[in-house]
């Protein structure tokens, strides 16, 4: 914890083998990692090279300890692109993105499918879109399938069941500018229905 507002550890998530924990540090989403059983005192380090990836506010560790991360920094400002990369921890190279969203799409969360075949992402369809829906992306086909059809509502953070069949997500209503602080309900969705 840090006494300065908005500075501290947020959004922790485990590496698949349970050996490390990653988290976002500070208001600028600096992606950090720490051993699951660290020595006393500060012992965290960057999960990926911050000089290459900048601020990453949506990421997940996959079943084979690979990372999926959403980079909406320089490309987003320059061309309206939000790119998703598949990289190893400690990476200092982006490589080619596995998916690219145009039109200033905002992404609020991303999670690997348990079998590693793809991911689920919570995203807008465009800059002026006033809702955020869940989509499924499959690596083999590169196809993106819409799972929810929310209008004037937002799917924020979510989690996928270990069998991959169900998703629980935060569902909120209100103004996009207040997205981070809106009260929400939890909804469960069957991926195949």
Describe the fold and architecture.
The protein is mainly beta and 193 residues long. The protein is built from two helices and 15 strands. It has helices spanning 50-53, 74-79; strands at 9-14, 20-25, 30-35, 45-46, 59-61, 66-71, 82-88, 99-101, 107-112, 118-123, 133-138, 144-146, 153-160, 166-173, 184-190. The strands form four sheets. A four-stranded antiparallel beta sheet has the order 1-2-3-4, with no helix packed on it. The protein has a four-stranded antiparallel beta sheet with strand order 5-6-7-8. A four-stranded antiparallel beta sheet has the order 9-10-11-12, with no helix packed on it. Strand 11 (133-138) and strand 12 form a beta hairpin. It is globular.
Query: What structural category arises from helix and sheet content?
Result: mainly beta
What coarse outline follows from CA principal-axis ratios? globular
Distance between the termini: 42 Å
Task: Give helix and strand order, one letter per element, not per position.
Answer: EEEEHEEHEEEEEEEEE
- How much of the sequence lies in strands comes to 35-45%
């Amino acid at each position: 914890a840090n006494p300065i507002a908005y500075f501290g550890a947020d959004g922790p998530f485990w590496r698949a083998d349970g050996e490390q924990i990653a988290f976002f540090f500070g208001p600028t989403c600096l992606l950090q990692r720490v051993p699951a059983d660290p020595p006393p005192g500060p012992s965290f380090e960057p999960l990926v090279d911050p000089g290459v990836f900048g601020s990453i506010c949506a990421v997940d560790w996959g079943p084979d300890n690979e990372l999926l991360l959403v980079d909406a920094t320089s490309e987003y400002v320059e061309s309206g692109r939000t790119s998703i990369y598949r990289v190893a921890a400690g990476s200092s190279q982006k490589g080619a993105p596995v998916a690219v969203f145009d039109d200033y799409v905002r992404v609020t969360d991303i999670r690997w499918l348990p079998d590693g075949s793809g991911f689920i992402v919570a995203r807008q369809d465009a800059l002026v879109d006033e809702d955020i829906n869940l989509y499924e992306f499959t690596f083999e086909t590169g196809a993106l399938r819409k799972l929810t059809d929310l209008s004037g509502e937002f799917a924020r953070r979510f989690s996928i069941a270990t069998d991959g069949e169900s998703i629980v997500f935060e569902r909120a209503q209100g103004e996009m500018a207040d997205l981070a602080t809106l009260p929400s309900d939890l909804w469960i969705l069957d991926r195949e229905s």
